[in-house]
Amino acid sequence: MRMPPIQYAESADGTRIAYCVIPGESPPLLYVSAVDVAPGIDMAFRLGFRSSFLEALAGGRAMVLYDPRGRGFSGRITKPLTIEQMVEDLDAVTESVGEPVRVVAGNTGASVACVRAARDPRLWTSLYLMGPAATFAGTLTAINGWDVRKNYRTLLGFICRVVLNVSLDDLTATIDQFERETPVETAIAYDDVFRHFDIWDLLPRIELPTHVSIRLPAVPGGVSEHAKEVASLIPGARVVVAEGSLSGREMGQWIRSTIDGLALDPAVESSNDTFTHREIDVLRGLAGAQSNAAIAENLGISIRTVERHVHTIFGKLDVTNRTAAARWAIRNGLG
Q1: Cα torsion through 74, 75, 81, 82, rounded to 10
Q2: If you classify domain 270-331 with CATH, what class do you get?
């Protein structure tokens, strides 16, 4: 996929924000990657994993990408950075597109998108959030114990190898380009902001249709756990679950199918109203990966009673195993 021409929007303080539009059908998608450390527009089209992900995500629909200030083609950071400036940059790109967009946002970009959606949802019609965090504790930086001040290139190497699947042969050159597009000073400026941000109070104000994706198996204290907490506070938000390792193309197609309203699993269409209160309790236990014995102990009932409830739940959901039932429970806010 070739990179479209770079365009510029002007943020509220005059900073030029670079963006491009992959041509296709309307309404367009607006893709908001992590705003602190992530490949810029130029790298996105050079890296195979990222390029195939974006191409599959677009799927023939127009899609907008942008470089946050301080990165890639956008203007530099000339004064202390704030979350308000990040939102204003996103505003500028949205208004330059000039038509309603569906937003796909990841990690710290998802957090910024939540702030914008809560404060001013103009021209946005829906949200798809990947790994959103309400505080610094839920960011990839905090969870992985990264410190951009101590060894920035090591952090970039991890992102390139583990997240972006860059080959060893291309690793040094890719890290060099990454460092040019997102200088350490920029990464530190964003890190300073996210170490102090807190958007818990804003999440209940989001009124847009919202999906939040998590990966299974979820690690205690990991990105998925924090994302579930965010989803629980956004009215009507639905959790969608990806399992195992997916290629860039597979991930793009999976997200696109969700955005377009395609059912990922027939059980998702079921309603909580079809379950008794006790079955809901058991479903919560399944979502928490609890054994029948643990569920029985927590609810003060016998293991045989739990087994009967599990059997009934399988029948109502038309599934044959605990994993499928747990996926349904998580997607429907019971996790």
Answers
A1: -60
A2: mainly alpha
